[in-house]
Amino acid sequence: MSGSPCTPDELMTVTAAHQLRNGAVCFVGIGLPSAACNLARLTHAPDIVLIYESGTVGTRPAVLPLSIGDGELAETATCVVPLPEIFAHYLQRGRIDVGFLGAAQIDRFGNLNSTVIGDYAQPTVRLPGSGGAPEIMTHAREVLIVMKQTPRSFVSRLEFRTSCGYLEGSGARRASGSPGAGPRAVITDLGILRPNPQTEELQLCALYPGVTVEAARAATGWPLQLAAELEVLHYPQPAELACLRDLQARTRAAHAGPVHISLPS
Amino acid sequence: MQLLPLADAIAAHVRDGHSVALEGFTHLIPFAAAHEIIRQQRRDLHLIRMTPDLVYDQMIGMGCAARLTFSWGGNPGVGSLHRLRDAVEEAWPRPLALSEFTHAEMAVAYQAGASGLPCGILRHFAESDLWHLPQRRQQMLRCPFTDAPLTAVPAINPDVTILHAQQIDAAGNVLLRGILGAAKEAAMGARCVLVTVEEQVETLRAEVNAVVLPAWVITAASVVPGGAYPSYAHGYYARDNGFYRAWDEIARERQTFTAWMRAQVLEVADHAAQLRRLGVAA
Question: Which pTM value belongs to this model?
Answer without folding.
Answer: 0.97
